Amino acid sequence: MADFDLVIKNGTVVTAADTQHCDIGIKDGTVIALGRGLGAAAREIDARGKLVVPGAIDSHCHIEQKSALASFAPTISTAPRSRPRSAGPLR
C-alpha cells in the first residue's frame, strides 16, 4: 500500500520559511511530508526545473466580480490596461 496519495518529486519547494530542493508527500489532500526519498505513492509528479509552492494563493483579477462593497469591479471595457509608453497617450 502507498504511503502517500501523491508525491511531487524533484521540485524547488518554496515555503514561507525556506526554499529547498525536495519532494512533497500528500495524503488525503494535505501536505504531510517534505524531504528526499519519501515512500511510495499512488501517483507521482516530476517537478524537475519547477517551483512548487504548497499552500500558496493564486493572485489574479476577476473582471466584473462583485466586490465586498456591493459594487462591481471594472468591466473588460473599463478595466485599466497596460500600454507601452511608445504607443502614446490613450485617446
Can you put this structure into words, describing what you see?
With 91 residues, the chain is mainly β. It is 0% helix and 37% strand. The chain is built from no helices and 5 strands. A hairpin with a 4-residue loop joins strand 1 and strand 2.
The CATH H-level superfamily of the domain at 4-52 is Urease, subunit C, domain 1
Tell me the total number of β-strands.
Answer: 5
Structural class: mainly beta
For the sheet with most strands, the description reads: 5 strands, mixed
Number of helices: 0
CATH class of the domain at 4-52: Mainly Beta
Gross geometry: globular
Quick recap:
With 91 residues, the chain is mostly beta strands. The chain has strands at 4-14, 19-27, 30-35, 41-46, 51-52. Strands 1, 2, 3, 4 and 5 form a five-stranded mixed beta sheet that branches.
How would the blueprint of this fold be written?
Layout (H helix, E strand, L loop, with lengths): L3 E11 L4 E9 L2 E6 L5 E6 L4 E2 L39
Parallel strand pairs: 1-4, 1-5
Antiparallel strand pairs: 1-2, 2-3
Main attributes of the structure:
91 residues; mainly beta; Urease, subunit C, domain 1; 5-stranded mixed β-sheet; 37% strand
